[in-house]
């Protein structure tokens, strides 16, 4: 994997992160928000590299036979971000999924702007069960609470 134009190459300590989550959970939208890009829907069809962020297709987590793709891709990142939409009550991440990565795993609850507190809490609990040690609750669409995640990735 080649990361071109990353902050890491310019001498800063920006973490390389891999986003994983179900189809439509907001991975690409969050990437666009964190990079101050125009927000627009763009279905990720293959692993895409954008500076320090690896955006994976939702199919990689929704189909167990593709888990090896996630494990292999994670070998060249500093942190894995599991994204769970607060509007999706499916069990996306199996318990202890984080053990398949030799990297820290962080959880991100997305779409908090259109969910009630019970749904946000449920999503957060699912991420903890999957092994996330830290949870961010954000709305990529509105930008709510994304600055804390950006700071985490910039540390």
Automatic annotation (TrEMBL):
One annotated GO molecular function: ATP binding
UniProt cross-references to InterPro entries, sorted A to Z: EutP_PduV, P-loop_NTPase
Keywords recorded for this protein, A-Z: Nucleotide-binding
SUPFAM superfamilies: P-loop containing nucleoside triphosphate hydrolases
Keyword check for Methyltransferase: no
Record carries keyword Zinc-finger: no
GO biological process: biogenic amine metabolic process
Pfam families per record: PduV-EutP (PF10662)
Family statement: Belongs to the EutP/PduV family.
This protein's name: Ethanolamine utilization protein EutP
Organism (species): Levilactobacillus koreensis
């Amino acid at each position: 994997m080649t990361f071109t134009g990353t902050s890491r190459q310019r001498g800063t300590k920006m973490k390389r992160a891999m986003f994983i989550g179900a189809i439509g959970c907001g991975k690409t939208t969050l990437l666009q928000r964190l990079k101050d890009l125009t927000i627009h829907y763009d279905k990720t069809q293959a692993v895409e590299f954008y500076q320090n962020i690896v955006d994976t297709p939702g199919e990689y987590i929704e189909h167990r036979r593709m888990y090896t793709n996630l494990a292999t891709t994670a070998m060249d990142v500093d942190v894995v971000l599991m994204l769970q939409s607060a509007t999706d009550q499916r069990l996306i991440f199996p318990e202890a999924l984080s053990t398949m990565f030799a990297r820290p795993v962080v959880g991100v609850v997305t779409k908090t702007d259109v969910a009630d507190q019970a749904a946000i809490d449920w999503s957060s609990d699912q991420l903890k069960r999957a092994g996330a040690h830290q949870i961010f609750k954000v709305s990529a669409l509105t930008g709510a609470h994304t600055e804390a995640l950006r700071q985490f990735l910039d540390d």
